[in-house]
Design a protein that fits this description.
Largest sheet of chain A: 6 strands, mixed
Strand content of chain A: over 45%
Number of strands of chain B: 10
Shape of chain A: globular
Order of helices and strands of chain B: EEEEEEEEEE
Oligomer: heterodimer
Strand content of chain B: over 45%
Radius of gyration of chain A: 14 Å
Amino acid sequence: GENVEQHPSTLSVQEGDSAVIKCTYSDSASNYFPWYKQELGKGPQLIIDIRSNVGEKKDQRIAVTLNKTAKHFSLHITETQPEDSAVYFCASSRGGGADGLTFGKGTHLIIQP
Amino acid sequence: GAGVSQSPSNKVTEKGKDVELRCDPISGHTALYWYRQSLGQGLEFLIYFQGNSAPDKSGLPSDRFSAERTGGSVSTLTIQRTQQEDSAVYLCASSSFHPNEQFFGPGTRLTVL
């Protein structure tokens, strides 16, 4: 089955700096790659996603890049703010099959004031 | 509009008892998913429904776990003869079709004493 590796497990950055979280996946048939933000005591919230026919997608301060050849994708957050502090999860899915999302183990992002 | 809701938000039970967890998806969403999140871990996919049918139940951890969905809406996840290792947050998500963006509920925190 699919395996998603996520790094780093913890990331501390100064407010205003950029943060990058990286994920690799194993199943070459995967074609949908969402990123979720989870705050304490809440369910994950979808913040951005990318499909395999696109190499990069941007939404304000958040961007995601995908390299299908290398089987890795990354989340980039620019101009970080205190409210960006949370746990971020990457995930992948084949689509079209009876499977859900396969998640990475998460990155705890800490924004230092 | 209303998001995915889950009940109860917290459940404490004794080892060996049965529990039932409920999920109300976003109105009109045909696909529904159950995940399990153990302390400090990523999310583990359990089962997916398209309408009332679950094409693949192999993600369920053991035969003590079962799920059903009626009327293409509400779903229940039942755990029989609970064990301490069943303690986790159980998350439900729904999407307008499979596969597409999944929207998560707040989860049910299950504690088995």
